[in-house]
Amino acid sequence: MNPNKSTQSCIACSACETQCPVSTPEKPFPGRYSTGTITQEYTSQPDPTQSCSYCKICDIICPQGISLSRQNMLTRSHQYAQKRPPMRNWILSHSERLSNIFAFLPSRLRNWCKSNSLSRSFLASIGLTPYMSFPPFAPKTFYAYCKNIRQPASDKKIALFPGCHINLYDPQAGLDLVWLLNRAGYEVWIPQNFVCCGLPLITNGFWEEAKTHTLRNMATLLGCRQMGIPVITACPSCSVMFKEDLPAYFPDAMQNLENTALLDAHAFILSSLETGVLPPPDMSADQQGTLLYHAPCHMRVQGLGLPALELLQSIKNLAVVRADAQCCGLAGTHGFKKEHYTQASELGKVLSDTAITMNVSLTSSECGSCRTQLQHITGKNSLHPLSILRRHYSES
Fold it and tell me: How far apart are CA 197 and CA 334, in angstroms?
């Protein structure tokens, strides 16, 4: 996919429209509005791009390499420039700030505050679904846990961009990645200046804040590049933002960086296993059962293959089933919005049906949003692939 390719190169093959998971007769393909190819059918909708979940399946399928998802966001931004985004969008896109504001409260109390009946009624009144639970805050952030990590010293350094989901909700995945990298002989640096990649800010209409985040993240990335330290991430959404979207949205914020891509943690760990840099896991570990794996849209759009699936399949005493699903349905913050929840659940039905048919005991995906949906729709625990791999190593 060419991040800057014009929609004028569209050949009208309709592949994007037929594959779009949110396109319906009532809500026609939003890309047709963004590109200006058809407008009349949208006259009853003030902003058709609101139906776009930013799953990027249209980008994956386009034979011309056009990013219609990005075009949808740019079109949506013009709408938000005229009318400020609603309160629910602010809540959905500012998890990092909300966590900092209420950091003085224990995580149990913070989670109760956003899940009790009064809070749910309020959230429903501003347009959020009462049926989808927000992921619970972890007792401490990943950054807080890292302050107490004792790592072996090494000449091989690598920096980690955790992303919001690992930092706030699943720090164990980040800790497991640090452990695996240490085992492979790397000392992991966790720069404190990294902030949210900006994806929820962009999809919810807060472009100026997204640019501020981008400037800060690129300055930190530049510092790592100047020291010769590669930067890695275990979040495919953060990865695609750094690699493709941020340079296209904010070219003047790139700090003269020619390459803003981050290393994919799953591909890096898989390569370390294949080359023997990382010792193989203990295959006698007691971890039986069937696991349901879902490939995130934002992983597939990068064209890197599915290294996380290969890692899971390398665990010989674990049966892995790949879900035959396009998008999990939740798509970041999209499925939390009241008007999108039903469709998000329908898209996720493939996952729940597969879980029942295959009698899975565990689910997994690289994407935090996908794991949230997997757990919600199947009722089964959902873990990061790297956490599952880590469980198959002994402590020694």
Answer: 17
Residue 130 is which amino acid?
Answer: P
Cα–Cα dist 311/308, whole Å: 5
**Is-contact 71 31, C-beta < 8 A?**
yes
Domain assignment of residue 12, given as a range: 7-82
- For the record, the structure tokens of 86 come out as 């609603």
Q: Is residue 324 part of a domain?
A: yes
pLDDT tens readout for residues 223-245: 999 999 999 999 999 999 999 99
Amino acid identity of residue 254, one-letter, is M
- Is-contact 58 31, C-beta < 8 A? yes
Q: Specify burial of residue 256 (Cβ count, 10 A radius: 0-12, 13-18, 19+).
A: exposed
Of the residues 82, 97, 123, the one at which a domain ends: 82
Q: Determine which helix (DSSP H) or strand (DSSP E) holds 101, and give its type and residue range.
A: helix 95-101
Domain tally for the chain?
A: 2
- Tell me the pTM: 0.91
